[in-house]
Automatic annotation (TrEMBL):
One of its GO terms (molecular function) is hydrolase activity. The keyword rRNA-binding does not apply. Signal peptide: none annotated. Its cofactor is Zn(2+). This is Adenine deaminase. InterPro entries: A_deaminase_dom, ADE, Ado/ade_deaminase, Metal_Hydrolase. Catalyzes the hydrolytic deamination of adenine to hypoxanthine. Plays an important role in the purine salvage pathway and in nitrogen catabolism. It comes from Nitratireductor rhodophyticola. Residues 3-316 form the Adenosine deaminase domain. CDD domains: ADA. The record marks H210 as: Important for catalytic activity. Pfam families: A_deaminase (PF00962). Its EC number is 3.5.4.2. Binds 1 zinc ion per subunit.
Length: 316
């Protein structure tokens, strides 16, 4: 099996329908709006974000979150993953009634349990939610900078890219940069190439979540390659959310061919009927990547991981 590593997966978006249903029974909540017949239901990006919020709202205690992280990383390890960074969202936990620190500690506990059982190494990237506004994202950055958790190594921003301007979030990312955290930001998914350029100019992240719509501007693709910015590409997510109409139009092979540093990721796996293993399979079948190239994508992910050098060397 080709070894795998994942840099871009939203932990609330990784909750399996079975786990969400058992949480719904625990809290006596009806899920039929967003989860029916054992599968998530939504029809566009906005309704996907609503389904994501509804699922997240069913994780309310420390044990709920520990189980979520343990369940996800244990399954990932079975697919051949040796490393996983999970995107976490303390804003969602607070809305569900749990403090940000209790939430972060609980996810850390789940990661430790999965590591003890399988050997998979995990880290936490705390994210702010763009459409909650610049103030909320700054609060998330301040919390990340101060939280002191051993497994928290990065800061990012997810959410609706159509909301606000990149420059509104500069302060948040400055706070995180000054704290020595790795930086990643969603751009070039529902925003065009201009969004990727704005991320490079205003945020200066080491990595970009998606970034695929940079393909609309060849000069920008050259810049990404020259600056070595790593793209967290999520092919199945892009097709299911209709960022591109089909795999033949997906730019992953062109970005790779242009010398960009590309990684494979699952984003919100059960929402998109995918998994990290499936993303590697899609890259093999639809993009024609051979095992040597797939191994090199894993290597890129480990090189770009927000992890200490001792662990990186062990993983490489
Ligand atoms: N949050 C969870 N999944 C996301 C995605 N694909 N884009 C932006 N924000 C997200
Ligand atoms: Zn994402």
């Amino acid at each position: 099996m080709v070894p795998k590593a994942e840099l871009h997966c939203h932990i609330e978006g990784a909750a399996s329908p079975d786990l969400v249903l058992s949480q719904a029974r625990k809290y006596g909540v009806d899920t039929s709006d967003f989860l029916r017949d054992g599968a998530y239901h939504w029809y566009d990006f906005t309704s996907f974000l609503a389904a994501y919020d509804a699922a997240a709202n069913l994780f309310r205690s420390e044990e709920d979150y520990a189980l979520l992280a343990e369940d996800y990383l244990t399954g990932l390890s079975r697919e051949g993953a040796v490393y996983s960074e999970i995107f976490t969202s303390p804003d969602h936990a607070e809305r569900a009634g749990l403090s940000r620190m209790a939430y972060t500690n609980a996810l850390g506990e789940g990661i430790e349990r999965a590591r003890a059982a399988t050997g998979i190494e995990g880290r936490i990237i705390i994210t702010g939610v763009r459409h909650f506004g610049a103030g909320a994202v700054e609060d998330a950055a301040r919390f990340t900078a101060a939280c002191g958790h051993r497994l928290v190594t990065g800061f990012g921003m997810a959410g609706d890219e159509r909301f606000g301007n990149m420059r509104d979030y500069e302060n948040a990312f400055e706070i995180a940069r000054e704290a020595g955290l790795g930086l990643t930001v969603h751009a070039g998914e529902f925003g065009g190439w201009e969004s990727v350029e704005a991320a490079l100019n205003h945020i200066r992240p080491a990595r970009i979540g998606h970034g695929v719509r940079a393909i609309e501007n060849p000069d920008l693709v050259r810049r990404l390659a020259e600056e070595g910015v790593v793209l967290e590409v999520c092919p199945v997510s892009n097709i299911v959310l209709k960022v591109f109409p089909d795999y033949a139009s997906h730019p992953l092979p062109a970005l790779l061919g242009a010398g960009c540093r590309v990684t494979l990721n699952s984003d919100d796996p059960p929402h998109f009927h995918t998994s990290l293993g499936h993303e590697y399979q899609v890259a093999r079948e639809h993009f024609g990547l051979d095992d040597a190239t797939l191994r090199s994508l894993t290597r890129t992910a480990i090189e770009a991981a927000f992890v200490d050098e001792t662990t990186r060397t062990r993983l490489l």
